[in-house]
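Not sure how to ask, but would you mind making up any protein sequence you like and the tokens describing how it folds?
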Amino acid sequence: MIKELQLKYINITTKSLCEECQMERKRPITKGVVVRLIVSKEYSSRSQVDLKDMEAMPHSQNKWNLVYQDHLTKFYVLKPLTTKRAAEVAFQLVDIFAYGCTSHSSE
């Protein structure tokens, strides 16, 4: 059967894939990996910032999204960016830190 499958498909494994064999297979033991949660006691005392690439969206001038998450509440703030330059990112972070989650206009 393997020979017939290899004529039509590539990367066919010869190892058994049945559930019983998978259960008997030994799993590697990972050592030294310590996962510690980030604990916050106050709102906005710890947060995480990431930039998400949106360049696959050709109809928009906003090519990046700034994603800010507060660790205590898991609350997200999303800000659209035209570039990922430090000045634009810093401007949006100051807006988040100074005004919270509301967006302000210059009106």
